[in-house]
Write a structure and sequence with these properties.
disordered N terminus; alpha+beta; 264 residues; two-stranded antiparallel ribbon; 12-stranded antiparallel sheet; 50% strand; 16% helix; 14 strands
Length: 264
């Protein structure tokens, strides 16, 4: 009986030892496999073109804004008002909107001169994902860029805007956003803008349409790591159908503006 018990204990011990060896072997195989997976794992590539639309608290940029506004006094007289102001945009805070997006609050200040006696003008906001960048300007929502930024890409940047909406310009009603359609004309091009040399600039044409009585033109430039550095708009309406007359001379309502970075 003692011999049988001893034999049984030995068999039990042997089985446990064998199971232990099997466990160690399997554990080693799993660890080796895991190590192999980690050593061959590659981080997903970061889209470097996201840097064309940087967003961060503390970010600040200043522009010079030149504008020409056409104000019809009567049927034969057009008053042309030219003006220069400076605009500073400061990213000051963030909040989460109703759909869970992180929104950056942008406070905009205005100065009538280079003494920069800043006065608060309005508050805008912006958001950015891995696929698009949006700005909320005067309660209008624009899809400014789509990512990755590539030559020839087109999109409806005014997706959330009714192009037939009339907006007041010097007391007159104008369909400012009629016939807009966004296209990347060039990207990663070195340019000098506002006295600054930028290594990589992307140009977005937002509108370039005209007929006998209307012209809609808008263009923006974004510098990598800086953001918007230049904007140009021509919004003209006229009743003069002579195509040989320049728009600047025949426009009876609308405006032209250029906005150029002067500090960042």
């Amino acid at each position: 009986m003692l011999i049988n018990l001893e034999s049984s204990l030995k068999n039990t011990y042997s089985m446990r030892f064998i199971n232990y060896l099997v466990f160690i072997a399997l554990f080693g195989l799993v660890v080796f496999s895991s190590c192999k997976d980690e050593s061959t794992f590659e981080d997903p590539e970061v889209d470097s073109t996201l840097a064309y639309f940087p967003l961060a608290i503390g970010q600040s940029i200043t522009y010079r804004l030149d504008s020409i506004i056409y104000d019809p006094i009567n049927e034969t007289q057009i008053e042309i008002d030219t003006n220069i102001v400076y605009i500073r945009e400061d990213v000051v805070d963030t909040f989460t909107n109703e759909v869970g997006e992180l929104v950056y609050r942008i406070e905009r200040f205005e100065s009538q001169n280079t003494n920069f006696d800043w006065q608060i003008r309005d508050v805008w906001s912006a958001t950015k994902s891995n696929t698009r960048a949006e700005r909320f300007e005067e309660n209008l929502r624009f899809v400014k860029l789509i990512f990755p930024v590539e030559d020839g890409e087109v999109w409806n940047g005014n997706l959330y805007i009714d192009e037939t909406t009339l907006y007041p310009v010097a007391g007159e009603s104008v369909e400012i956003f009629k016939s807009w359609f966004y296209e990347i004309m060039s990207t990663a091009v070195p340019e000098v803008i506002g006295g600054y040399s930028f290594d990589e600039v992307t140009t977005v044409q937002q509108a370039n349409e005209e007929n006998l009585i209307e012209r809609r033109y808008s263009l923006e430039k974004y510098a990598k790591g800086v953001g918007l550095v230049y904007r140009e708009m021509e919004i003209y309406d006229t009743q003069e159908i002579d195509e040989s007359i320049p728009w600047e001379e025949k426009a009876d309502k609308g405006f032209k503006l250029t906005m150029t970075v002067v500090d960042y």
